[in-house]
Design a protein that fits this description.
eight-stranded mixed sheet, GMP Synthetase, Chain A, domain 3, alpha/beta, 46 strands, Non-ribosomal Peptide Synthetase Peptidyl Carrier Protein, Chain A, seven-stranded mixed sheet, single chain, Aminopeptidase, Acetoacetate--CoA ligase, acyltransferase activity, transferring groups other than amino-acyl groups, phosphopantetheine binding
Length: about 1050
């Protein structure tokens, strides 16, 4: 009963077993997927049996209850998480641990050696009084010792909570104090790459807030170096002392708590999310064996710290018989992780989009520079992968599957991920996780029969849909709850209040027609910076000690050039008489980095007069986020002080305050030291930090390792000298960089510009259509427009004078930029050409050439030029070239909002194409014929005095403005042309209802400029612009444009 076309894999083997057990044959993967979600009890029962985990008790009861919020899996089953991970041949390799700078310090363990260490530490924990259910905490580096700790804690039934050593004391206390841990494990020895307050000092401060601690266990040879009320033990002595006292792995209930993971702290203290051992284990085992085909002989390396859920996810890979590799040290070069992969024969490498983006920017070619022949799979998580990153991996690494996996700390697993046989499409995760009914709300009713008789429509044939990511059925890795919460209120509000009965995750996703999934970003207020969730409440807690600051708000600004696509912006309201000078900005950044973590350090700090408040006095992060991103506030009407948004937008638009080095005012004096001035300006620009001093620690001010490496590459290009990464991290200051520049020889050949050839601009030709469509599909990946649709823009859909379809920016024949022009002769507007600027995209490496493309395109003085979808970045360029605003607003008109116009008598509406065409004059007939192939609704409305010809386009997009709060694509009708606006105004409701019924939409969108007094409706901002020597704004319509050809 193997699935048709599936290559040999554990998933195929399991599908055979499942098919036999349920007496059903799965002809394709989507049938198996649907069955696993609908009949999840049969799926999980069969998987547990097939997995062959050591266990005891009764597994007949798979799940009690059908509600995702309260269901309980395997209530009568017992197992031991550590035993399940450590079973296997004693001599099999299980762990490789790499330490410090370089690849030399490596420790390797077999399963037998790891079992012995875990058993000895478990026995020691029992001697220290640790019992099942007790909490143990760790402030630990990503090393072999932490693996032993995690498994020993699980062996005795203790609940483990991990924190990373880069966290400040405030962040550590916020997470660990509520748990009242009995034992604290900690690394105490300093390392060269540590920043800020010594780790041992932070541990001492933490212990002062943990009166429950009975013992501290050092994971290295370090000491607390301070008076202490509890004994200090060292792990190696505990593990080596005496004979093993461990005779059997005690089996604990399936839902016995295993770990506490922490939320981001968005609305207060971080939530302590309690996960069970059995649910975590079988979810991970399913993801590893079925979706990743992980098995004995594989070696997995995931780029993670032990404070992230992916550390737990990688640890569970031991249950599949695989070996894991951990790395403790800095990212000393962009190639480091590829070197680790090659040196240790890694078969499955886990990373994140920010790292892949950095490798691409550095010009790395890992597949050519390293031996990656054993690498078979790359996994990426933390933030959405951009389509071009799939192409880079295929070209620069090797042609292998790149699986974008996404889930979260909340579920300690994945909702969407990979598949051993399904094709990988750029920008998509191939499938949802088996057994989980993942959906995008709103979702049409599934066309399947619960008895198992599916309709003809399969997952591949469904239309793409966007919505809120939910899980509609019970799943084993749902948290047990929040630690310490007795009534479940916060747990319910966090995951089940928004959509009762189903898990709501807080992500916006798109389910594609191929069955894949694209994660579009967060839908709640949690920030995601550099792929890491950031809780604003943690930032606010640290800033409370600043007397200069009255209020603060942290929001995310969209920034394509940033890893992860966003930067953290901190808005501060200062107390009277205070100002945001460079010294205060440095103190803020330093405090957030030292007492919190590097991802809490803002990219921009802005002083504002006030923060937006709702009518009830609550702060509105959503309104502030819209303001810093140049969007109209979605909840402006609900604000008590909407006037503050304009000042926020103005502040963010002013840009970072960098000094004018031409006046000799640099920190070293531009006239006295031109190199220092150039270097300072470059650092301020790359790091987006204003007024840097020569001795400012760039790491403390928020420049993480990826930013510093970006700076390093920029300095090498600017000055033509190679620099030492180790020296840079040792002295991360402008003075340190200057010392390197003045003490090293010129770079060896190879430090070259980003492309061998100079950029060149030329017209689009027919031969360019395929690569051009692919470039636009990748560049505008979030639009959901595929290559086939982009091709419509670069052909002659309408008669014109044979001019160019657009202009290309090329480097060595590779297309790196495009500005498309949709050309036509408008029968209603005379003989001069109409040119619509349709698609303006330039690869980030060549953004400076965008204006050159625009100048090349605007060569015809007598043409009417339009731009209906300009980005905020292109508005200034268009204005500089004499474009004028065409629309100040559009209006969304819902049904029955203009019922008073129904009283107007004598209206007749015709929609039949032959009838409509017969009622038009010759010029209008030409318009009708030109637009008939493009799915436009063309209609004629007549009353006793006038006739109106209307052309409309159905769209299914997120509406701009206030309606964007709806987490769905809304179907609406857009009016492209109306020959008689006065008639439309007289009979607005009747015509509107006819359009909505015909196109099955929820509202009509019209341009406000059609009437001197626009009708009632929700005003939506519009940035459309035009330039014409012949036509005024009133004569410019939206026919013969990209709005006809594309679903924009």
């Amino acid at each position: 009963m193997a699935l048709d076309g599936m290559m040999p894999s554990q998933l195929r083997d399991f599908s055979d077993v499942l098919g036999r057990n349920v007496a059903r044959q799965f002809s394709n993967y989507w049938e198996l997927d649907r069955f696993s979600a609908e009949e999840f009890r049969q799926f999980w029962s069969c998987f547990l049996s097939w997995s062959n985990l050591p266990r005891s008790g009764d597994e007949a009861t798979v799940c009690v209850g059908d509600a995702a919020e309260t269901a309980v899996f395997f209530p009568d089953l017992r197992l031991n998480y550590a035993e399940c991970l450590l079973q296997g041949p004693a001599g099999a390799p299980v762990l490789t641990a790499c330490h410090g700078i370089g690849l030399a310090a490596t420790e390797r363990l077999t399963r037998g050696e790891l079992r012995s260490r875990v058993a000895r530490l478990a026995a020691a924990l029992r001697r220290l009084g640790v019992a099942p259910g007790d909490r143990v905490a760790a402030v630990a580096r990503n090393n072999a010792e932490m693996i032993v700790v995690a498994l020993a804690a699980a062996a005795v039934g203790a609940v483990l909570a991990n924190c990373t050593p880069d966290m400040g004391s405030v962040a550590l206390r916020a997470r660990l104090a509520p748990l009242a841990p009995r034992v604290v494990f900690a690394n105490l020895e300093p390392m060269p790459w540590d920043r800020g307050q010594p780790l041992a000092e932070r541990v001492v401060e933490l212990l002062a807030a943990l009166p429950s601690v009975a013992a501290v266990i050092a994971l290295d040879a370090g000491d607390l170096a301070a008076p202490r009320a509890v004994p200090l033990h060292h792990l190696r002595r505990l593990v080596r002392a005496g004979a093993e006292e461990w005779h059997a792995w005690p089996h604990l209930p399936f839902n016995h708590p295993l770990v506490v993971l922490f939320s981001s702290g968005t609305t207060g203290q971080p939530k302590c999310i309690l996960h069970g051992a059995g649910g975590t284990l079988i979810e991970h085992l399913k993801e590893h064996r079925l979706h990743c085909d992980l098995r004995p002989g594989d070696r997995m390396f995931f780029q993670t710290s032990c404070g992230w859920m992916m550390w737990n996810w990688q640890l569970s890979a031991l249950a599949s018989g695989a070996e894991i590799l951990v790395y403790d040290g800095p990212l000393e070069s962009p190639a480091l992780f590829w070197q680790l992969v090659a040196a240790h024969g890694v078969t499955v490498f886990g990373t994140n989009p920010a790292y892949l983006q950095h490798c691409e920017a550095a010009g790395l070619t890992p597949g050519r520079d390293h031996d990656l022949h054993q690498l078979r799979l790359v996994l990426s998580t933390g933030s959405p992968l951009r389509p071009r990153q799939f192409a880079w991996v295929a070209e620069a690494v090797k042609p292998l599957p790149l699986h974008s996996i996404s889930g979260g700390t909340d579920v300690i697993g994945c909702f969407v991920l990979g598949h051993p046989s399904l094709p990988v499409h750029a920008g998509e995760s191939p499938c949802r996780s088996l057994g989980l009914d993942i959906r995008a709300l709103p979702r049409p009713e599934a066309a399947t029969d619960r008895q198992g008789t599916a309709q003809q429509e399969t997952a591949q044939q469904e239309t793409a849909r966007q919505g809120e990511l939910i899980c509609a059925n019970p799943f084993p890795s749902r948290p047990l709850g929040f630690f310490g919460e007795t009534d479940g209120r916060r747990f319910h509000e966090s995951y089940f209040a928004a959509n009762p009965g189903v898990w709501t995750h807080g992500d916006l996703v798109e389910h594609t027609p191929r069955g894949g999934w694209t994660v579009l970003g967060r839908s709640d207020s949690v920030l995601k910076i550099r792929g890491i969730r950031v809780g604003p409440a943690e930032i606010y807690a640290i800033l409370e000690s600043f007397e200069d600051i009255a209020e603060a708000m942290a929001v995310a600004q969209e920034a394509e050039e940033e890893p992860g696509g966003q930067r953290l912006v901190l808005l501060v309201v200062l107390r009277p008489g205070r100002r945001l000078d460079p010294d205060l900005a440095r103190r803020i950044r330093r405090a957030l980095g030292q007492r919190g973590a590097s991802h809490l350090v803002p990219g921009r700090i802005l002083a504002v007069d006030a923060l937006p408040l709702t009518q009830s006095g609550k702060r509105s992060e959503a309104a502030a986020r819209d303001a810093v991103n140049g969007r109209a506030a979605r909840n402006r009407d609900a604000l008590r002080n909407p006037e503050c948004l304009a000042s926020i937008t103005a502040s963010i638009g002013a840009g970072p305050r960098c000094r004018d080095t031409s006046q000799g005012t640099g920190p070293h004096g531009a006239e006295a030291d031109p190199m220092a001035a150039r270097l300072t300006a470059l650092c301020e620009s790359i790091l987006d930090l204003p007024e840097l001093g020569p001795a400012d620690d760039l790491l403390e001010l928020g420049a993480d390792s990826l930013r510093m490496l970006s700076l390093l590459l920029a300095v090498e290009r600017e000055f033509g000298q190679r620099l030492s990464v180790t020296a840079l991290f040792s002295a991360p200051t402008i003075d340190g960089l200057l010392a390197q520049l003045r003490g090293r020889s010129p770079a060896a050949p190879g430090v070259v510009a980003k492309a061998a050839g100079a950029p060149r601009i030329r017209p689009v030709t027919p031969a360019d259509l395929e690569p051009l469509a692919r470039l636009l599909a990748a560049g505008f990946g979030e639009s959901g427009i595929g290559p086939a649709q982009w091709r419509h823009l670069f052909g002659p859909p309408w008669p014109d004078d044979g001019g160019s379809w657009g202009w290309l920016l090329t480097v060595d024949e590779a297309i790196v930029g495009v500005l498309g022009t949709v050309r036509a002769r408008h029968p209603l507007r005379g003989d001069a050409p109409l040119c619509n600027l349709s698609s303006w995209y330039v690869h980030p490496d060549y953004r400076g050439w965008g204006s050159a493309l625009l100048v090349a395109a605007l060569g015809e003085a007598d043409a009417t030029w339009t731009s209906f979808t300009p980005s905020s970045l292109s508005l200034q360029a268009l204005a500089a070239l004499d474009f004028r605003r065409l629309d100040t607003a559009r209006i969304f008109l819902p049904p029955l909002a203009h019922a008073e116009t129904l009283a107007a008598p004598g209206l007749r509406i015709d929609c039949a194409p032959a009838t409509v065409r017969g009622l038009l004059d010759p010029a209008e007939r030409q318009v009708f014929d030109d637009h008939a192939p493009f799915d436009c609704l063309q209609m004629v409305a007549r009353d006793a005095t006038e006739r109106a010809y209307l052309v409309l386009k159905r769209r299914r997009d997120p509406l701009p403005g206030g309606l964007r709060r709806l987490p769905l694509r809304v179907a609406y009708s857009e009016l492209l042309y109306c020959s008689a606006p006065a008639l439309l105004a007289r009979h607005l409701e009747r015509i509107k209802l006819a359009v909505l019924a015909r196109q099955r939409t929820l509202g009509l969108v019209v341009d406000a400029r059609l009437w001197a007094t626009p009708p009632r409706g929700r005003r939506l901002s519009s940035h459309a612009m035009f330039r014409s020597a012949r036509l005024g704004a009133e004569a410019v319509d939206k026919l013969y444009s990209e709005l006809v050809l594309l679903p924009v």
